[in-house]
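Hi C.,

You asked whether I'd gotten around to modeling the 151-residue construct. I have! Everything is below, sequence then structure, no commentary in between.
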Amino acid sequence: MAMKALLTKGAGFIGSHLANVLKGGYIRVDRSLWLVLASVIIAAGGQLSLKAGMNQVGAINAASLARPMELFMRVVSTPLVWLGLACYGVGAILWLIVLSRLALSYAYLLLAAMYVLIPLVSWLFLGERIPPLRWLGMVVVVLGVVIVARS
């Protein structure tokens, strides 16, 4: 129970400061940061789509690998797999734009937001369980992203 209270309080604190960052309260938010955010959100959507699509395909194991053409056809005939790949394509284009505007050392650290967003969407939409220590780790990552965004 103490861990849940700590995470709730920490998430509220981080959320309010992240909102200030995004509103430009601590730093000037330019288009490049919005592009990084869009890239992260689209990549997370791509991961979610790929996972849901592969859940439809089923586990890849020795038996399915013994019939590679059948496995290949199951994968390529799954629309969610294609949606996930399309999200990656759009995300890659946005990322190229970001790289043309920001230092790689700065932009790449902002991608750490994916380490939080992907587990969150997995929890919300796929029903995956996230243990308390992983929640704590995600709070640490968010703090790191906020620090990097302010630098």
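If it helps when you're writing up: Residues 31-57 form the longest helix (27 residues).

Thanks,
B.
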